[in-house]
Amino acid sequence: MAGSSKTGRIQSFDGSTYFDLDLAEIGGKITFTNNDGQKELVSDLATKSTRHFTTTPITPYKIGDLWTDGSFLYRCKTARSSGSFSSSDWEDATKYDNTKTVIDGGLVTSGTLQVAGDNSNIKAGVTGAGSSDSDVRFWAGETFFKPCFSTF
User: Fold this and answer.
1) pLDDT digits (tens, 9 = 90+) for 111-135
2) Three-state SS at 42
3) Dist CA 152 CA 105 (whole Å)
4) In sequence order, which residues have a C-beta less than 8 Å from that of residue 45 and are 6 or more positions away?
5) pTM exceeds cut of 0.85
6) Quick count: other Cβ atoms within 10 Å of Cβ 124?
7) 143: closest CA among 103, 107, 106, 113?
């Protein structure tokens, strides 16, 4: 190709850092410099990215990581570097029950009733959602999005 050059490997004098164009490989202690002049190791940048779990999360996980279980979206609110998964580390990341409450005589129809404590955290409720015998309709100790983890 006219005007182009080809090289297989570019490396530092000591060989510890290299770019191998033929193998599409970069190795060594690589840093990136941002617009503010701050340098960050590539390995540090990788740990900053948000993870998305599609099954029950395993440690380590950090604040901002996401977890979907097929029905709901959760966001990590408490980082855990080791040990076992804890449902209390996660909170619902969406709000989408916009069902209008209707009172007709003695019948109250609503999508979901959620009860919050003094700190405004929802920890109990009742819902008409679901149609199987195993659906949780009353819960306490967790949010609507994690009733299967509730203590009641």
Assistant:
1) 777 777 776 677 777 776 667 777 7
2) helix
3) 31
4) 32
5) no
6) 19
7) 113
